[in-house]
Amino acid sequence: MNDRARLIRKYISEHKADFRSVLQSLVEIETPSDAPETFGPLWDILSEQFTNLDFSATHYEGDKTAGQLLCIPKNFNSNKPSQLIVGHSDTVWDIGTLNDMPFSIDGNEGSGPGIYDMKAGLAMMVMSIQIIRQLDLDLSVPPIFLINSDEEMGSDESKELIIEEAKKAERTFVLEPSLGTDGKIKTQRKGVGGFEVTIDGKPSHAGLDPEEGVSAILGLSHIVQQLYRLNDPANGITVNVGTIEGGERSNVVAAKSKAVVDVRVPTQEDGERIKEQIYNLQPEIDGIKLSVTGDINRPPLEKNKSNEKLWEVTQKLGQELGLELKDGMSGGASDGNFTNLHSPTIDGLGAVGEGAHAYHEKIFLEQTLDRLALFTLLLLEPPIFD
């Protein structure tokens, strides 16, 4: 371990209480994606923390969301290459969950709603700059922190700002939680698509003249089977009919039905092909009309030469800390799916733990602090790309 890595490790070891304090303050503010009115105190805490670390913090109001927080160094020179750090403040947990899942640190485990996905990542953002400032380390590439409030809903409102900032950035780090309990870095993510398939049939009385009707439910049943035949798990392609609805009454041959479909693909090429196949679905009985809407709304985070190089740098810095880092592909999407199209991206740099979106959500404190040391070293790297 070199002197810089040793110095950062020592500081983190001596200031665990600071990390726990910031983390607790964030977890104990419940921020469900669909309750924008709850985010004010969290924005206040983050803005104050970054302002005290010589950043300007600007809150962009949302339309149907709580908006985004953009934190930029006060002495920022836009002519220099920057690095973008992305995270989200929203969780999947409803207001009141904290009563059943209170924040706690028990030995090496920390729990609470959203602690793993991804409020520990937000605490890491704050602490990394505190470490750099307190140790007077040379931060040659200015960091831009972008925190949104709608990632769990697809980032529809924040996507434009994320892409805008990614286009300016020499590199991007996403502090989503790691992959699996062994803390793999996410160097690939599947793309995600959402589609709706609507069926129009012909209603009739189910007892008096059923032969006059054309059942939209029967028509949909055939389409559902066609959709499931698009699955190719060996190549990482999944097509899931998540919900179906249809019909009016049991004594009426159904006039309408609908399926909502989730698609996951490892490559853009796969996404284009599956999209085309879904749009070309054909009814199997006469009298059925079929319509499709939807798209691949988050492109895959695929490996390329640039993010491979960034991954090599990440591994090298891990070795300086005595960490043997591994990488993997996540079936879930993040804002890294957007940034990687415009800036080399490393994802999953946040907390090590388990139970995202589940009642056993937790972080492993010491391993997460290791990840904090790694992230701090990454911020201190000079420009990587010409």
Structure description:
With 386 residues, the protein is of the alpha/beta class. 34% of the residues lie in helices and 24% in strands. The protein is built from eleven helices and 16 strands. The protein has helices spanning 3-14, 16-27, 40-52, 97-100, 115-134, 159-168, 216-228, 268-279, 305-320, 336-339, 365-380, and strands at 55-60, 68-73, 82-88, 104-106, 109-111, 143-148, 169-174, 185-189, 191-200, 238-246, 256-265, 289-298, 327-330, 345-346, 353-354, 362-364. A hairpin with a 7-residue loop joins strand 1 (55-60) and strand 2 (68-73). Helix 1 (3-14) packs across helix 11 (365-380), helix 2 (16-27) packs across helix 5 and helix 5 (115-134) packs across helix 11 (365-380).
Short description:
The protein is of the alpha/beta class and 386 residues long.
Task: Provide the descriptors you would attach to this structure in a database record.
alpha/beta, 6-stranded mixed sheet, 4-stranded antiparallel sheet, 34% helix
